Amino acid sequence: MDILLIGSGGREHALAWKLAKSKRVNKIYVAPGNGGTAKEKKCTNINITDIEELIKFAKGNNIDLTIVGPEEPLIKGIVNRFKEEELRIFGPAKDGAELEGSKSFSKDFMKKYGVKTAEYEVFYEENKVKEYLKTCKYPVVIKADGLAAGKGVVICESLEEGLETIDLFMVSDIFKGAGKKVVIEEFLKGVEASILSITDGHTIIPFLSAKDHKQIFDDNKGPNTGGMGVVCPNPYVTEEVLEDFRVNIMDKTLIGIREEGFDFKGIIFFGIMITEDGAKLLEYNVRMGDPETQSVLSLMETDLLELIEASIDERLNEMEVKWKDEVCLNVVMASRGYPATSETGYEINILDDVKDDVFIAGAKIDEDKLITSGGRVLSVIGRGKTIEEARENVYKNIEKVNFEGAYFRKDIGKAK
Ligand code: AMP
Ligand code: GLY
Fold first, then answer.
1. Terminal CA-to-CA distance of the chain, rounded, Å?
2. Ligand 1 neighbours by CB, cut-off 6 Å
3. pLDDT score, position 416
4. Number of the ligand closest to the Cα of 287
5. Would the pTM count as exceeding 0.85?
6. CA of 142 to the centre of ligand 1 (A)
7. Which of 120, 141, 151 gets mutated to test ligand 1 (max ligand atoms within 8 A of its CB)?
8. Which-ligand-closest: CA of 187?
9. Local confidence band at 87 (pLDDT 50, 70, 90 cut-offs)
10. Which of UniProt's keywords are assigned here (predicted)?
């Protein structure tokens, strides 16, 4: 099969690497890809991002299957457009993608189907939300309704901070429309977990749980980032938590997807908080996580292409996913200045014996050299029988990768 894979992050490098292992995959075009996919087996980057251009490419090059990495094209309706053209594609259509595209839509969905989540209210008017904030217990969580490049959630410690956040979101309109509507949510205390899963709209199969480390500094200090490293499986997701998640979150979500009649053949990612009162859903994403994917796919033994095809053909009930009985860590190396800004343009050196343990995110190929081009530059992988062994291996591997101004957390797999 010839595959078109859309996206350019570390997630897409991991997807390309995993798909390339499938005997049935002949060629993978990555649009637009990065310096990692440029060098991956069976892969070629193509510099296209526009949906109509991608359709032309898929038709002109007899693409058998398109796989969408990031949320943005899904929310724009890329799956609907491809299907109108009778092209085979993996991902949810526009209606289901709204579970990530709009926080109020997803909260209303959770409420309607009894999915366990934080209490919330939705507001469209600045005056009303400001009045409401005067009655809240703090901290309180304020969320911009639409996509805000990962910056649309603020945990406010006081009324003053809440009012300032509303001014930024609704009055200054810093997210160009995405913050004109807001969700005010109860603050949940606990440990977070990412549970990625695959669904065909009838069956849902959870993958191994993962734990992201969102803050930039050790001990979960400093500003939030896209994710600085992942341990998989998540050590806090016990059998008991998993059962609670299945009953109170996952199964109810599946009922909702069916009842709403979403055309959902894709990935659904549950961001949960494990609280004293059990597992509660923070959010849905309708794509794989980054950097969760780099760890999760490193442990997946099942052929990913087989799973994706079973989802599209509504045969997931016949599938079982096999995993390596190991722990996988990935530690993100970021460029100096991240997440506020980041320096770019430095050459990356990777020793040969760890080449297979590196997933590239923000780097490009320039005259056959790998050059940094983004904030999160790459992830280094380490596996082991225990977390301790995986930690030892990942930090040994990271010594063999370097570029000017490289920064990484030292406590991935250790921090709560
Ligand atoms: P979201 O995009 O909704 O996952 O929010 C991004 C991050 O904000 C989450 O990963 C949590 O760390 C935090 N967060 C979101 N909602 C809450 C909440 N209700 N209570 C505490 N933290 C939250
Ligand atoms: N790592 C979190 C996310 O992909 O949303």
1. 42
2. 118, 141, 153, 155, 185-188, 192, 214, 271, 282-283
3. 87
4. 2
5. yes
6. 9
7. 141
8. 1
9. very high
10. ATP-binding, Ligase, Nucleotide-binding, Purine biosynthesis
